[in-house]
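# nightly structure sweep
# worker-07 picked up a monomer target from the shared queue
# config: single-sequence mode, recycle default, output format = structure tokens
# input follows
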Amino acid sequence: MIDKTIDATLFGGPNFQVPGIIDSYADKKSGFSNTRTIINIVKQLEKQGINASQPIFGKDNNLLNVLATTVQQHTKEVNNNSYMHGSNKPITVPVINGVAVIARGALKVTGGLA
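# output follows
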């Protein structure tokens, strides 16, 4: 449910704010997988009639190697050269009935591909 809620919000699902309690479980998402990505690309290509994994006329089909290398090198580049910055703006945190209330926008995480 957590994966589906986060994915729906990030990838064009319903336009709504993800409740903070759901956001707090974002680190439980399965994360990126090179292998899963390559398998999904091959499946999609084969649905389109493109042979990406079986031998062609008895000879090795190198398209799978090309796809795997491309995904692996893209992942390496993102891991080595993308960035994510987190910060907590200085604020006074009010306490209401024993619960600290952090104002919206007080915690910031920004990132992207440089």
